[in-house]
Amino acid sequence: MPLAAAPRPLLPLWAAVLAAVLGGAVLDLAYPSVGWWPLAFVGVALALVSLIGRSVWGALLVGAVFGATFYLIHIMWITRYLGEVPWFALAGLETVFMAVGSIPLALAYRWMPRLFPSRWASLIALPLLVGGVWTARELFMGSWPYTGFPWARIGMSQSESPLAHIASWTGVAGLTFLMVAFTAAVIEWARVARFRDLRTALPAVGMAALLLLVPAFPTTPSGTLRVGSAQGNGPSGYFDERTRNAVLNAQLEASAPLFGEDLDVLLWPEGGIDSDPLTNESTAAVLDALSERVEAPLIVNAATTRGDDTFNTSMLWVAGEGAVQLHDKTNPVPMGEYVPDRWFFEPLAPDLIGLIQREYTPGTNPPFFDLNGVGVGLAICFDVIYDEVIWRGAEDGAQVYMFQTNNADFRDTDENLQQLAFARMRAIETGRSVVNLSTVGTSQVLAPDGTMIDGLPEGEPGHMLTEVPLRTGLTPAVLLGPWIKILLGWGSLAAVVALGVGVTVATRRDAKTPAPAGTGVALNG
Predict the structure, then answer these.
(1) Can you tell me the distance from the alpha carbon of 166 to that of 164, in angstroms, rounded to the nearest whole number?
(2) For 170, 234, 348, 499, which has the most beta carbons within 10 A of its beta carbon?
(3) DSSP letter for each residue of 361-391
(4) pLDDT in tens, 242-301
(5) Pairwise CA distance, residues 238 & 45, whole Å
């Protein structure tokens, strides 16, 4: 059977570019602060429609337009910290990855119908491949360069939607895959245009049922933990003017109403201490006194130094014993908490790079504390977006998560709401409660189903005293998540390569096959 003809573009190039612009803008609206989660499907659909039938260069163009439109809007909060140059730099880098990652999507749309021209291949196999390739692009962008930037994953847009529970089975990567595959299936059903044959709608209907009807994986209740937490709203931003120990004093003041209460632990946010309590005796004495006053251990955070290395460190602090357990941030933020390849970047932007004087070292100790027999999973600030940090905490025995963050550099922006959405998704994904505590907000206690148990207003000092549910048992997302990512990432790319090989072989075969007798054109003399 000869190779089928390549599909024609669904849209002319000018219309595809407009669709990509609209798709990027619409996709951003699916995330906080707007948070209209159904628009994620609309944004993805516009991106896919613009790629169908495109050449490699056409895919590169519309992918770049889609990526630039989305990221320039989505991470505009970066300008609150360092201005326009880092914003353009990061959005530009992500745009390049989105553009290059659009090429295999376009090739999947070109090659699958040529090798497998049946309508059922278009309705089932093609959407699954498209969903896998989109997810592979997300996984790559979330892991490279350096530690990547897994901030704007499609699955993370659904933290407050009825689809979020799927993440407890598949992880965020699996949710992205199912959402994109469903969107692609609807597009293919519309393209086939056999609306009277209800069977052609079954693939899309089946994926919709999977997304909507599968319940969250159940974890097992195992009691409660009485958690006190304090949001000091101190001058904890990078450029905030402050006096010595101003942040520490703000945290102490916010914690004062908890004195005399019955606590199992008192939690402070990232950067809640101005000095290193591991080396500063006066700061250590303050923490000892605080632990004695509340008659409970503390979970606090500060920049610490050990040898020649500096770490972003969470500490389990016990009066009279000091820091009995440590966790250092696993993924310090490139260009924020350290400068990779400073020799290269500093000559390019000496004023900006020169602002980053402290060089945090990546931590290797587990994101987990044993709090008097209760397992506490940890994530410091942006570590919440890295799957492996969250999964390792659960595997080590976490019954609850405590996320410490400092959002002071992004006050009054979407950043802290987007990060809170990630925390909510982690609660659902792992079936664990999450105490998400910021120096300045937004701070909330989230139940294992993602609903809010307790919260504090943004930009105000305050405290919470919360009976936090504990859970045991590992969700499939934790157990199978790494394998799901390998399958969707490498498996999808391998499938595209296999299609390319198949098209190449078939093209060469057809070129060598002589035309059947009688098909030539007779010339009359």
Answers:
(1) 5
(2) 234
(3) PPP-S-SEEEETTEEEEEEEGGGGG-HHHHH
(4) 889 999 999 999 999 999 999 999 999 999 999 999 999 999 999 999 999 999 999 999
(5) 40
- Burial (Cβ within 10 Å: 0-12, 13-18, ≥19) of residue 471: buried
- How do strand 265-267 and strand 298-306 relate by DSSP bridges? parallel
With beta carbons less than 8 A apart as the criterion, state whether 92 and 78 touch. no
Provide the residue type at 479 as one letter.
Answer: L
Q: Give dist(CA 225, CA 520) in Å, integer.
A: 84
pLDDT of amino acid 380? 98
State how far the Cα of 266 lies from the Cα of 258, in Å rounded to an integer.
Answer: 9
- pLDDT surpasses 90 at 351: no
Query: Mean pLDDT over all residues of the chain?
Result: 93
Do the beta carbons of residue 426 and residue 168 sit within 8 Å? Answer: no
Asked whether the beta carbons of 403 and 435 are under 8 A apart, the reply is yes
User: pLDDT exceeding 90 applies to what percent of the chain?
Assistant: 82
Whole-number pLDDT of residue 515: 58
Cβ neighbors of 24 (< 8 A, separation 6 or more) are 43, 47, 65, 66, 67, 68, 69, 70, 71, 73
Q: How far apart are alpha carbons 469 and 514 in whole angstroms?
A: 73
Q: Under DSSP, is residue 260 helix (H, G, I), strand (E, B) or coil?
A: coil
Name every residue whose Cβ is closer than 8 Å to that of residue 420 and which is 6 or more positions away in sequence: 32, 436, 442, 444
| Residues 349, 352, 356, 361, CA torsion sign | negative
Separation of alpha carbons 2 and 509, rounded Å = 9
* Residue from 311, 273, 276, 302 nearest 290 by CA: 273
Q: Which of 142, 164, 167, 169 is nearest to 153 (CA)?
A: 142
268: its two tokens: 């402070």
The answer to whether 129 touches 495, Cβ cutoff 8 Å, is yes
Distance CA 383, CA 365 (A): 14
Whether 161 has a pLDDT exceeding 80, the answer reads: yes
Answer yes or no: is pLDDT of 70 > 80. yes
Q: What is the pLDDT of residue 518?
A: 52
Q: Is the pTM of this model over 0.90?
A: yes
- Distance in angstroms (rounded) separating the CA atoms of residues 388 and 475: 14
Split at pLDDT 50, 70, 90, the class of 340 is confident
